[in-house]
Structure of fatty acid amide hydrolase:
Amino acid sequence: MTWDYKYMYVLPLASLLTVLIAYSCIMMVRYCWKRAALKKKIKTKKDECREALERLAAGHQETDGQSQKSKILDLPMEKLLEKLISCEFNAVDVLRAYQQQALEVNTELNCVVEPIKEAEDLANECDNMRNRKDQHKRPLHGLPVSLKECYFLKGYDCTAGMSDYIGKPSEEDAVIVQVLRKQGAIPFVRTNIPQTMMTYECSNPIYGQTLNPHDRTRGPGGSSGGEGCIIGAKGSLLGFGSDIGGSIRIPCHMCGVCGLKPTYRRLSVKGTHELGQGQTLINATVGPMAQDVTSLVIAMKALLCDDMFDLDPTVPPIPFRTEIYEKTHTLKIGYYVFDGYLEAVPACKRAVMDAKTILENQGHKLIPFQVPDVQNVFTELYVRITFGDNVQMLLECLRNDIIDPTISLAVTNWSLPKCVQWLMSWVVSCVYNDDFVGKGIRSTCKTQNVYDWWKLAEKLQEYKKKFLSLWRSLELDALICPGFAFPAVPNGEVFNVLGGVTYTTLYNLLDYPAGTVPVTKVTKEDEAEMKDYPTRTRYERFIKKYFSEGTVGLPLGVQCVGLPYQEELVLRVMKMVENGAPFTVRTD
Ligand SMILES: CCCCCCCCCCCCCCCCCCCCCC(=O)NCCO
């Protein structure tokens, strides 16, 4: 037999092919195995949370029949606190009433992630204090409060909707939680968030999707969507969220509740889960959310205390300045209904005009205000800074995760090579007839080095200066503007209307305190006016589609804004708007 030279390559080629096939098979098996393990991990976590909720519900069936429940639930927070402090109500009864209510609303709305099991012990401790009468020194004595899942709580996982953080319980409570407890509050439930918390659709693969309490086909907003939902559904009187782009204010606007995003560091941010804490030009803040403005004031007064200043010395020791909140002098307030990028829908514009009338009727002077350069500021500063690591950190956290459909398009885009993203961005700009997403994509791949970063920091300072001198030249005390560009968005559709965020991100970028207060609801007339809403860009077309019908009755808020560290003044303006507003959650 003779060797045929034409076969001399066959053996090595066959071997190479076999190795490649074997390698692919191993990788495939590894991937499937990892995926199955991940699904199991998520399922186990889900089951644990569900079982904890079921145990709580079962416990309530055994101890049911408390007569005071409706009396408790009918009281606004201020009145309930009076009764708790005077011992007319037991902390345990109040806790049980709110646990039951939270469980009840949760069955339909999926706003609660898990109950906090230490709540019962804390309530008992409160009731045992009775004889010592110490409760008078504790402004939140016996008050159940809800917490966004991103707050560290000793012994509990803090995932921000990402499975990588399952099974890594926090070692310590967030400073806010420690102070709340010292002031007598009882954290009783943890609430839902979007995966990564960098969007306002409240959905993630671990805890699922939260619905809007006013319309189950729509979302509550986010990222503090679970908080907005539970407070809007009256399952909690006071809760705490976080905000780097609108995450407190958007759900407040969409769920008809009040919330305050303070100046960065007015409240301690120590002990909250944030992506990219090394990014220090635009910072996430934490803040209270509640059914009325008075509750926000009570919460701020309670938190701005020596305990907070001791536990976190980076918080400026400025207690709540009641004198500013209670002042009655006439204010000069700027207003706008359009920020210069995306037209707010007629209902949201009317909400601002209603608030303007309310304030004018109370003797204040309202003057028009024009936001300088908003779209450029959003793409060239906000996106470039908050995604300044070219989205690396976010992708790293999601590397081994199941991606929620609400953010999958963005994540897929960000996972592509930068040059492809760059090309895509131009295509997207043309297809959308809008530079928002295109420029947004380019902005997430632009920052290359420290020089770029310093330039960005400089530009941010320049914009802050420009905005402040405009404010000063008009001699403004405060500003009012749309709570958002539109009301609650149909489930699963937030990505199509992402552009609305310029209304809220501006005040994170400027680091001005801003609060949202409900003013009115969408009317038939507002909806009819949608016929004239522009349809030039893709966002505008989606907005017209989502808000031309099925929106009547949805809540609408306005944002009230002040200069840095003027939270008390912002709350005063919010309170004045609330006083004159035809719609508040409680009286509705
Ligand atoms: C074919 C389409 C490809 C799509 C590619 C998507 C790229 C996305 C463009 C970039 C835009 C960036 C948008 C940023 C939106 C910010 C939203 C802020 C929501 C609230 C966040 C918040 O406050 N979180 C609280 C954290 O504590």
Summary: The first strand starts at residue 112 and ends at 115. The mean pLDDT is 93.
